[in-house]
Design a protein that fits this description.
The protein has 350 residues and is mainly α. The protein folds into 2 domains: 192 residues; 146 residues, Four Helix Bundle (Hemerythrin (Met), subunit A), CATH 1.20.120. It is 66% helix and 3% strand. The protein contains 9 helices and 4 strands. β1 and β2 form a beta hairpin. The protein is flat and about 65 Å long. It holds the Pfam family COX15-CtaA.
Length: 350
Amino acid sequence: MLIDGGPGPVAAEEIEILSLPLWAWQVTFAVVGVVALALLARTVWEPTVRSLRWWALGNVVVNAGIAVTGATVRVTSSGLGCSEWPKCTEESFVPVGTDHSAFNAAIEFGNRTLTFLVLAVGVIVFIATLRLRPRRRDLRVMATVIPLGVLGQAVLGGITVWTDLHPASVASHFLLSMVVVVVAVAYYVRCREPEGVLRPTVGPAARALATALLPVGFLLLAAGTVVTGTGPHGGDAEAPRWGFDLVLVTRVHSVLAWAVLAGALAMVVLTLRTGSRTARVQSLLLAGAVLLQGVLGYVQYLLGLPEWLVVLHVLGSALVWIAILRLYFGTAERVSAPEGAPAAPAEAVR
């Protein structure tokens, strides 16, 4: 499904709704969204584990979601809809008088405004963590890293624009989102556990395999960015591309996906024999996610990488990564240390 932004470059302010330019509605949406989050966040002053987990889940969703909206920018060739950073154009922070179509400018500017919502959720979790009693150093560390990661994403987005969407910067932009997701998922899991000692809930083989799936899964994500940087969806018609053989890098990506699937199926077998219900369920969820993602990947490849399937595939990538993380964290849990035992070191990510 190819969406045509128009016959040629036109000023972004030509798109109007109720006599207001589209960018004004986008700014309003972002402001209203941040205010709504602030009103919903009144629980941060007296946070409970339950309320904190809901906000932590929101952290996971928005940080994974911004990667999907970024893919929408890319497949619609809107990556340079705002050709400057932090401004949209040399003269303005909003898309007025851009060199791209109004459609492209609106997509890119809209993605930039969503960053404020992602940052707002991160700040809310940070404040709630500071207010939490008893104090949790491990949670404070993670709650600090997440909004800093979002700010880093914004800066890396600027570098991506300055390099005219070089595939290396585009790949780094996506992978940083996935790194922030690691911390967000760790926070989500850890906030309901005590600051105690780590106790495996599966056998040594299953724990080792779940740990091994982390680097393999990240390599799978990285290989996907190489396929993206070699393929047709560069974010702009003039964006540089890598000169790799598309079939070859796609096969490498596919081999890594099969490796993750094999690991997931092995985890299912291991956790059926010895393991907690949580690890067993997470193993099944990972296997299902990889199978669906694999089918989607082959279909999009055979159909010539249609735009809407590419966006779905990026969403699937984020879900598979989250499933890998949930499986890893599901193979062990923190429990209160026995009375008189030495305190366990506070670790940001176990």
